[in-house]
Design a protein that fits this description.
Helices cover about 20% and strands about 25% of the residues. With about 120 residues, the chain is α+β, with helices and mostly antiparallel strands. Strands 1-2-3-4 form a four-stranded antiparallel sheet, with no helix packed on it. The longest helix is centred in the first third of the chain and has 19 residues, at about 25-40.
Length: about 120
């Protein structure tokens, strides 16, 4: 059996350095990589969401985020929303909070459906 080739996306220093490691170090590295992936893919906990974000029961198509309803400011300092008074803010709009490489991010999903 031949030694496997490194993926082309792997940085050169890893592609050259990993084969030089002993088996035990590679096993520890394997465990670390699995734990790192699990950490980065963990769902966003509602306690981490902004205070004004209200989780909704809308399905998240990606399966790796939390959909919330939020009121927002438009960025125009002359708009009444700049006061951050919830009654003067725009929305609500739907946002999905998710993790990307361990960092929490959000993206616009759309307007809530009319009932």
């Amino acid at each position: 059996m031949e030694q496997p080739s490194a993926p082309s996306s792997l940085p050169k220093y890893l592609a050259e350095g990993l084969p030089k490691q002993d088996t035990e170090t590679l096993r520890e590295l394997h465990s670390y990589v699995e734990a790192l992936i699990e950490y980065r893919e963990q769902p966003v906990d509602t306690a981490e969401l902004p205070e004004i974000a209200e989780p909704v029961d809308e399905p998240d198509e990606s399966g790796k985020g939390t959909v919330v309803k939020e009121k927002v400011t438009c960025g125009d300092d002359s708009c009444k929303c700049a006061s951050r008074n919830p009654q003067d803010m725009h929305g609500p709009y739907l946002y999905r909070y998710y993790r990307d490489n361990g960092t929490m991010k959000s993206e616009y999903v759309g307007k809530p459906g009319r009932e």
